[in-house]
Amino acid sequence: MTHELTRRGFLMRGAAIGCSAAASPLITPMSFAATPWDNRLVVIILRGGLDGLDAVRPWGDAAFASARPNLAGQKASALDLDGYFGLHPAMKPLMGLWNKGELAFVHAVSQPYRDKRSHFDGQDLLEAGAVSLASGTQRDGWLNRMLQGIPGVEAQTTFTIGQENMLLTSGDAPVSNWSPDVDVTLSEQGLRLLELTMQDDPAMAAVMREAVMLAGQDGDAVVAESEAQMMEAMGNDMAASRKGKGHHRIADFAAEQLRSDARIATFSLGGWDTHARQEITLKRPLEQLSEVLLHLRKGVGASVWGKTTVVAMTEFGRTVRENGTKGTDHGTGGLMVLSGGAIRGGKVYGQWPGLEEAALYDRRDLMPTGDVRAWAAWAMRGSFGISRARLEEVIFPGLDMGNNPHMML
Amino acid sequence: MAEGERSALFVIKNRRKLGYSAYECRGAVIAAPVLQGSFTVFDPVMAETRFGYGLSPRIAAPESIGVMLAGLKGRDAMADRFPIETFESFGPREAERIRLRRITRGRAEGDVEAADAALRDLKEQTRRDALKWLRQDMLRRVRTQTGFRERLVAFWADHFTAMGKGAVINMATGPYVEEAIRPHVGGRFEDMLIAASVHPLMLHYLDQNASIGPNSRRAQKKGGARGLNENLAREILELHTLGVDGPYTQTDVRQLAELLTGLKWAPLKGAVFLEGVVEPGAEEVLGKTYGPDGGVEAIHAALRDLARHPATARHIAWKLAVHFVSDTPDPDMVTLMTRAYLDTGGDLTAVYKVLLSHPSAWAADAGNFKRPITFVSSTLRALDLPVRWAEAWKPARVGRHFFRPLLRMGQRWQRPAGPDGWAEEDAAWITPQGMAARMQWALGLPEMMGDRMPDPREFVAAALGPTPPQRVVFAAEAAENRREGVALVLMSPAFQKV
């Protein structure tokens, strides 16, 4: 036994370095190198297939109301965007952003994925940024490819937030993952003992240190004074995600990271697969998206928001006509949501193809007239000055970005 | 003895002498490591921690390599005791889903609202059943006498990753593993390769269902709107057999894809081969010609040849060594395993025997960081989770104790990101999120274990064996309460890196 540890010796050592939790090596903040950029980019993947026609309703299109007898709703001036399009009532809280020019949409866009309309393939392709999965070769995500080879990029530059790893940020470039509903709450004694046992493996100790630091940044303190407080703190995290407020924590955590060293944050929002009773089922995801944008804006503060671009995209749109269960099925052309102080908002971008049957894709879906990857590419070009050649050859191989849509300020 | 009276009480004898000579816990005596010169050539504790799902206070560790290998051949006691549905009975669920959806989409006659409700019930019932299968898998790991067998099932299920895309079928991985993987882990590689490659779930997952020979009868009739899909062919070569650095070209991928045409799972018909989409003519893969008109037999022949290829032998040997021993395995061990594979025509038990007989398999400085599922499973085994409790849990509780924590730790149950399965490198798992999620789950164990939460001082030996690191012994003793003490043992490098 080389390490003669006794309780007394341990506690005395603890006393020598001070008993406040802040002095524990496990919760000493680490210092990070300078980041490569000043602008911020947030990418939100809307999983399940957002019905763009319901979120941003083409009131100006004569075929709209007849295609959606139960879903079209009433045209309301309070939700009018530009005389042609109107917002879904659940997104009404965003009218303020729209009026300030901090919210925009791109309509009738999609990725190149066609016909099979599978969520899984569609999401994989959307995140891989590839044209097809048939060759089975693209195993990293486009956002990770953007980061590869950029000097100054560290794990803390990019945060993937939420329970699931995302293909979007998977790859050789370092990325941080964190889910705010994960929390470490233990007694001060427990924290010190954790630090002690971790000495047997320095690599693990370093990661644990970062874990404790991140856990301390997402709402609850790491060190609880009593076991009751500890249970309460852990219960709060679980309860928050169970009660559907998990998206607030995700947005708040993203904002907190973006305010300091992070430049990119990405996460997913689910619930968009509205095959039935869409009038009810789409309300909550749209409210959540709205709340996320408002939380982000508030969380980063005015100065950072001015440098921020938020891009929300989905794997495909949904059928133009509503189905027999008052919902919509998997379609093709859809909607992209843009927000942030760095964008030229207050505008619905894109080329509207029309909803008459002959204009539809496959006579059922909104015809895509633009590629979501091109819009994402312009956002990266505008935010980080990535060259067009890299965007078209490496990040989205084979993409033609087309003309600059000038959606960034 | 009734389960309720048991406790994880260990008696450690003579541990200061040679590491230890005997180690017992309520009837489960663990023998001493076997030494040969200065090398350890077998250690019962490591047989459980490195090659199984950890130590159990109830079940004795294997006494020898021979016992470990014999455990692969005997009756599958865990599958009998904790059954999981096979795909044969799962398949009709998918057929039912398709039938109901045709009604809800107006493509078939029927009551739309009733079909919609039935569809929701079907999805919900399947989801609940899948949580039950997750629990069964965990209980197998808690109670198995041959942890190595369970680890191999997980290893090969990952090697042949397949998962459903779509409601209902996305719960099919457990049944697929039960049928295509589990029976073959102690057998010949080629049998498992064939069982997995032509399995309905694999045909679905890697888009073989969508593949149509460009000159097939179907393509002629329909104008060839959809063509060949190379996905399955590529993954067979790149992931399942030769390996990404293997000696194959794009032409081989294409030719194999053409050979595979015809394999197609049609849930309503129960069929897995359709002549109409077969690409006519012979195909040449790695210089050997198959067909023409060989049908399923020609496909099997090609798969057998791929299985026996030296590049496959090396790929499999290397992957096993990395998975069980170290991210950077001893090249000598890999070479010997490769030779055993080739000498026996891919007899996997012969390969495992070489792996386990090599001194570097037992090196104290080797080992891997546990994946989340291994971390959770070995915790449950060390805690001796009472079977009767877990069997009485409602699905929601399985979700709370197992499914969601695993998700937070970075391992969604049976859903890796792609066909290449879960990452092997330790670095992929030692992440802040992953570590914090492990800690969170470990600190929440009293909710699962109730009054069966062990004394941390005893739990040190239950989880780590007779020679626990001194720092962990100290921490378990100094912890303020059982919750933190047990969590500290589980979070210790000694428990997590085996």
Summarize it:
The complex is a heterodimer of chains A (409) and B (498). With 409 residues, chain A is α/β, with parallel strands linked by helices.
Observed structural traits:
heterodimer; A: 409 residues; alpha/beta; Alkaline Phosphatase, subunit A; 9-stranded mixed sheet; disordered N terminus; B: 498 residues; 3-stranded antiparallel sheet; two-stranded antiparallel ribbon; 25 helices
Largest sheet descriptor of chain A = 9 strands, mixed
Number of helices of chain A: 14
**What is the mean predicted local confidence, pLDDT of chain A?**
87
- The assigned structural class of chain A equals alpha/beta
Which percent range fits the helix content of chain B? 40-55%
- H and E string of chain A: HEHEHEHEHHEEHHHHEHHEEEEHH
Provide a descriptive summary of the structure in words.
The complex is a heterodimer of chains A (409) and B (498). Chain A is 35% helix and 13% strand. With 409 residues, chain A is α/β, with parallel strands linked by helices. Chain A has one domain (26-180, 244-395): Alkaline Phosphatase, subunit A (3-Layer(aba) Sandwich). In chain A, strands 1, 4, 5, 6, 7, 8, 9, 10 and 11 form a 9-stranded mixed β-sheet that branches. Chain A has a two-stranded antiparallel ribbon with strand order 2-3. In chain A, helix 10 packs parallel to helix 12. Chain B has 498 residues and is mainly α. Among the domains of chain B are: 77-202, no CATH class; 207-307, no CATH class. In chain B, the strands form 4 sheets. In chain B, strands 1-2-3 form a 3-stranded antiparallel β-sheet, with no helix packed on it. In chain B, helix 4 (87-104) runs antiparallel to helix 7 (173-181) and helix 14 packs across helix 15 (331-343). The longest helix of chain B has 32 residues, at 112-143. Chain B is globular, with a radius of gyration of 24 Å. The relative contact order of chain B is 0.11. At the A-B interface, helix 5, strand 6, helix 7, helix 8 and helix 9 of A face helix 5, helix 11, helix 19, helix 20 and helix 23 of B.
